[in-house]
Write a structure and sequence with these properties.
The protein is mainly alpha-helical and 446 residues long. The chain is 61% helix and 5% strand.
Length: 446
């Protein structure tokens, strides 16, 4: 297939061709549906300013609907010779419509095409990640509710510190996920600007109505300066990557804790066979491999975030081919986080606290702070004096349930504030599904 830029027919060295294409043709399969969306909006904009007739637009929309169907059915591929999804789309239209298909690139560059497609991709997948964050947070809240009375040591410096509860631990993961979702909501607002119509970064003599195409695609605003549209590439992706890194940090903490807490040394939790693997040489092994991979993927995502930051800095204002290399780390990270949130949810369904083992491992020394606090409250002893007195005492026959109940400051084991989390989840869902601006697609544009 002939590339869009090689109209002379001169052959490029195969090594150069393969190197410059890289893995673009692979990751553009994820972009193609969003490039169709952008192209449909652009076609409507061309008809609005008289470049396409009403009949031509109708034919173009029909061809895009057929392309979307063919893609869904697996009939569309992108080869290294195609270079990218933009080439495949344009050749598909030309093959179906002849000269009408050749009009589709009027006033547009592959630069603003890929900007628009990636922006739409990020909007769509950030919304998916936010939904999965809320789903997992919801699961953690339910676990916190169910296990709020089961005692569990709290740790400081990797040593038992004070009594906590399984519910308290699960609530901490829930709140972390809710903050991650909230951060991603701000990122979603930040990137909700349309670059379509900025062309190669210097605008176009074609009188495109950029506000119109922005509305057609469901963007909240137009990214105005055409050069900034290009130089924002990397900045917007980096903002998304920071959101993904926040989520992956929460998942890594949950994964690491459960890897240790299900070990024989702790035995705080039991994992069902459904989520463990074994060893090829040691018959007794039951490995929580999904969580080890979940923990490790946080490092990969952090590295991908740094790669995107480094790729986009110190470049001359305008488009630079270096930016092509951002697709792989962005999309791999997005898929990793989406999969990670799902695997965490599944694993949590198959992990239960082992209350008997937890109680057996609770060290009485962790109650000395409670003894000091009791002196302050019941006898009016200054805390520092109470601290010194308690240090030489021994805690015996502590009522663990009573100890948990007495920790009543907001967010403590005895006052988890789960209603607040449920309200946040409900509010976030309403925000996403009640007022969210979803992009129109060629499949519902007739």
């Amino acid at each position: 297939m002939t590339t869009l830029w090689n109209t002379s027919g001169k052959k490029v060295d195969k090594t150069v061709q393969a190197y410059t294409v890289g893995t673009d043709y692979v990751f553009d399969m994820h972009l193609l549906p969003f490039d169709i969306d952008g192209s449909v909006a652009h076609a409507r904009g061309l008809q609005k300013i008289g470049i396409l007739t009403a009949k031509e637009l109708k034919d173009v929309l029909r061809a895009f609907a057929e392309l979307r169907k063919d893609f869904t059915l697996g009939r569309i591929t992108i080869t290294p010779e195609d270079e990218d999804c933009h080439t495949v789309i344009e050749h598909y239209l030309v093959e179906k419509l002849g000269d009408v298909g050749k009009k589709i690139h009027t006033g547009r560059s592959r630069n603003d095409q890929v900007l628009t497609a990636v922006r739409l991709y990020m909007k769509h997948h950030v919304a998916l990640v936010r939904t999965k964050c809320l789903d997992l947070a919801d699961s953690c809240v339910e676990k916190a509710d169910a296990y709020q009375h089961i005692p569990m040591p709290g740790y400081s410096h990797t040593q038992q510190a004070m009594l906590s509860s399984v519910g308290h631990y699960m609530a901490s993961i829930a709140e972390s996920l809710l903050d991650d979702e909230s951060f991603l909501a701000s990122v979603a607002d930040h990137i909700d600007k349309s670059p379509l119509g900025s062309a190669a970064g210097f605008g176009s003599a074609i009188p495109l109505d950029r506000a119109y195409t922005a509305r057609e695609l469901g963007f909240a605003a137009v990214q105005i300066n055409s050069l900034y549209c290009q130089t924002s590439r990397g900045k917007f992706e980096s903002a998304v990557m920071e959101g993904l890194s926040q989520v992956s940090a929460t998942l890594a903490r949950l994964a690491n804790d459960l890897v240790w807490f299900t070990s024989q040394e702790f035995a705080f939790f039991d994992a069902d066979d459904a989520v463990v693997t074994g060893s090829s040489i040691m018959p007794q092994k039951r490995n929580l491999d999904p969580l080890e991979l979940l923990r490790g993927n946080a490092a990969i995502i952090a590295g991908n975030q740094l790669a995107i930051k480094e790729l986009s800095k110190n470049l001359l204002s305008g488009y630079n081919r270096d930016l092509q290399l951002m697709k792989k780390p962005l999309m791999e990270s997005m898929m990793s986080v989406e999969d990670g949130l799902e695997i965490a949810r599944v694993v949590l369904q198959h992990v239960q606290p082992n209350e008997k083992e937890i109680r057996a491992r609770i060290h009485p020394g962790m109650f000395l702070a409670d003894i000091a606090n009791d002196m302050v409250l019941s006898r009016g002893v200054p805390f520092r004096d109470a601290y010194a007195l308690a240090k030489g005492m021994e805690a015996k026959d502590m009522d663990l349930a009573k100890n948990i109940r007495e920790k009543r400051s907001l967010g403590a084991p005895g006052k988890l504030g789960l209603a607040t989390y449920r309200a946040r989840i409900a509010r976030a869902r309403r925000s996403m599904y009640g007022r969210h601006r979803f992009a129109k697609t060629s499949s519902n544009m007739s």
